[in-house]
Write a structure and sequence with these properties.
Layout lengths: L82 E2 L7 E3 L7 E2 L1 H17 L6 E3 L21 E4 L20 H12 L6 E5 L18 E5 L14 H12 L5 H12 L13 H23 L15
Parallel strand pairs: 2-4
Antiparallel strand pairs: 1-3, 5-7, 6-7
Helix pairs in contact: 3-5, 4-5
Length: 315
Amino acid sequence: MGYFADTRDDSIVGSLGCGPGCQCSPCRGLSESYVDDDTSGVGRVGWAGYAWPGLERVGAPAAVVATPTPLTAPALGTTTINVLLPGPGPGYDLYGDRNHQYGRADTVRALQTIAAAWQRAHPSGPTIGMGNISLFGGAPTPYHAAHRQGLEIDIRPMRRDGRNLPVTSQDPAYSRELTQELVSTIRANPILPIRVILFNDPMVRGVQQYPGHDNHLHVGFLASAASAPPTTRPTGQDVAFVRNAIARGERSANRLTDAVFYAHHPERRGRPITSAESERIAEWKSIRSGLIVPELSQALGPPQPSATGTVNGRR
């Protein structure tokens, strides 16, 4: 679906379909490569890992060769991600890179509260194995496409022998019973609500399966009202990114909107918007109508329907 083919406010309401074959994010998901904490493989960068097949310089002058151009959205970072998870502490041990264990103050408080509740239930152990959260300030990390908001942490599943060592959900040493108790304890914490827990054991309640999550639980918290950064107001980086993309020949309002939206929400890792996410639908539409469409209009002029039914020569 091309620029200005449909600028109605209800264009992604209901099933979120913008039209036949639409490739905007609310209509389809993206994909990512994930490198977990217990491997030593080559890392992945965050937004540069997202690319849309066939993203071309549509409408570019004939002298310009049309080549696939992945959109790399502005990097996000905030100095509120400046609290190092102390430890080991009551009820938990640490694993992984200490440089990746910075979070928001309320995230660290939630983790310590979870660990304290676990220790009360298991005073003799085992302890919770806590891994990567974020780099200081939310800087890009080579290990994850997300982990930029100080709201996500990787936690090891529980073992039968109580050791703080790697284990997968298929390993004989894995304890489904203790892992289920851990998930319930995480979700019961009174500090921050849980957005998602990813883990590949279909018999554990309260988790979602996702590729690459056999040996750790990816826990995503929801920011409190006091710590949540604004997500719908375009930043100077957003504007600069959109203008540069248009200058390179990008003409798809949907792809530009997706890029800005997912830059503000790296924790989604390209997960498509569902019809139940009314706030995210409104945010996506706000970015499109408040930033993308005006910038395209300013750069290219108002849409002019052609005799073939296209808009400015583009569908």
